[in-house]
Design brief:
Blueprint lengths: L7 E11 L4 E11 L6 E6 L5 E6 L3 E6 L5 E6 L5 E6 L5 E6 L3 E6 L5 E6 L5 E6 L5 E6 L3 E6 L4 E6 L11
Antiparallel strand pairs: 1-2, 3-4, 4-5, 5-6, 7-8, 8-9, 9-10, 11-12, 12-13, 13-14
Length: 170
């Protein structure tokens, strides 16, 4: 990588193992080339540890080979910064959430956009997928949580947080 002039980013993953009487930590270092042209706002690691997805302010999602740090592909389609990414348990799909108010579902192998989900237009700042890949929970900038049924594209919103000040200065 050095000969190619690529800058590298060291990502330390802390794997925590819970023992019967103590907690043990193990650190694993990955070398990932910096391929985004904006700040990286979110990363996700596949369950098998082989694939990394990253979302950036450059409006893209990148898929990386974890061991080599090689960029596999760039996923483009969002019109504003990508705040969050989540990989399915089987590593075959990635969901991205953007400031453009959409969630996009992508095929990791082909890079094809499979589906675009639009809620109420609020930016998506956090994502998680169910282990079976059927549901996606999304946190939005306006304090709402959306639960998406990915097979039907139906979303249910709940307001779990508010922007009401706790105390006012006199």
């Amino acid at each position: 990588m050095g000969n190619q002039g690529l800058k590298t980013l060291m990502i330390c993953l802390w794997v925590v193992f819970f023992g019967m009487s103590a907690i043990h930590s193990q650190s694993v270092e990955l070398v990932v080339p910096l391929g985004h042209h904006g700040e990286v706002s979110s990363v996700a690691l596949s369950a098998d540890g082989k694939t990394v997805a990253s979302g950036s302010w450059d409006q893209t999602v990148k898929i990386w080979h974890a061991a080599s740090g090689k960029e596999i592909r760039t996923l483009s389609g969002h019109t504003k910064m990508v705040w969050s990414v989540a990989l399915s348990a089987d590593g075959r799909t990635v969901v991205s959430g953007s400031h453009d108010g959409t969630l996009k579902i992508w095929d990791v192998e082909t890079g094809k956009e499979l589906q675009t989900l639009a809620g109420d237009g609020a930016a998506t700042t956090a994502l998680a997928l169910s282990t079976d890949g059927r549901n996606c929970i999304a946190g939005h900038i306006d304090g709402k949580i959306g639960l998406w049924d990915l097979s039907s594209s139906i979303v249910r919103f709940a307001r779990l947080h508010s922007r009401v000040p706790i105390a006012r200065a006199s």
